[in-house]
Amino acid sequence: MAAITRLINRTTSSSYYSLARRCFTHAPPPQRVDPKQRNVQWVFLGCPGVGKGTYASRLSNLLAVPHIATGDLVRHELSSDGPLSSQLSEIVNQGKLVSDEIIISLLSARLASGEAKGESGFILDGFPRTIKQAEILEGVADIDLVVNLKLREEILLEKCLGRRICSQCGKNFNVASINMKGENGRPGTVMAPLLPPAHCMSKLITRSDDTEAVVKERLRIYNETSQPVEEFYRSRGKLLEFDLPGGIPESWPKLLQALNLDDYEEKRSAAA
Ligand SMILES: [Zn+2]
């Protein structure tokens, strides 16, 4: 991860420099390993609400690699007394976006500690979000594949508006029942709601930022910033576009097919 440190040091301010140095003092140098000798190093892209966390998490279980979500790294750092936690809580309290530098420093610390424990692969979720992040990542890790999960915008909108959180146990649910007819050669999409158990039903709340206007704006910003990142990987022949055909029961087998993993589970249990 020393290469990340060098890149950051070259590109960012001196106040960040000291933070980065504190973060990386114990980090081992980056190791480039033959892809055949290691596990997958994949990236999942997809707009908010598309369910990329769900698919990334399922694949990480299947392939026995960590699912590294930058959102989780931020939450973990906030709840710890790590070197960036006070700076982070200030940013989050002010409703600002967490900078590339902080995300990269959290990610590189996570990758370094994984390497030290013998991890040889990962699935990244929520990173890279910008070209700058993609370039920095390219400098330190060989990404094999970038999976871009896509869903029609009107479905995404309905799904986002259907999100509910249980105010008691904190679990996420979705009350949207989607049944879109196919049109212009596109197949229809059916997605069942993810309903809560009876004891959560009366405690469901909607996030205050899940309104139509906010969700549309979130999607617009996502599309604007993600297009260059998609192009970055497309031009390197690493982008796999995947149109989700529906909910998890419909999409999961098709995704495994697209990733040439459809007989992976059988092969793995046969080898065991
Ligand atoms: Zn509950």
UniProtKB/TrEMBL annotation:
Q: HAMAP family from the xrefs?
A: Adenylate_kinase_Adk
**This protein's record includes keyword Membrane:** no
Keyword Plastid listed? The answer is no
| Enzyme Commission number(s) of this protein | 2.7.4.3
Task: Return the Pfam families for the record.
Answer: ADK
Q: Which Gene3D superfamilies match?
A: P-loop containing nucleotide triphosphate hydrolases
State how it assembles: Monomer.
The protein's matches in InterPro entries, at most eight in alphabetical order, are given as:
Adenyl_kin_sub, Adenylat/UMP-CMP_kin, Adenylat_kinase_CS, P-loop_NTPase
Instruction: Write the protein's name.
Output: adenylate kinase
Q: Which family does it belong to?
A: Belongs to the adenylate kinase family.
Domain of life from the UniProt record: Eukaryota
Annotated GO molecular function terms are: AMP kinase activity; ATP binding
Naturally occurring in which organism (per UniProt) = Crotalaria pallida
Tell me the keywords, alphabetical order. Kinase, Nucleotide-binding, Transferase
Q: Which reaction does it catalyse?
A: AMP + ATP = 2 ADP
CDD domains, per this entry? ADK
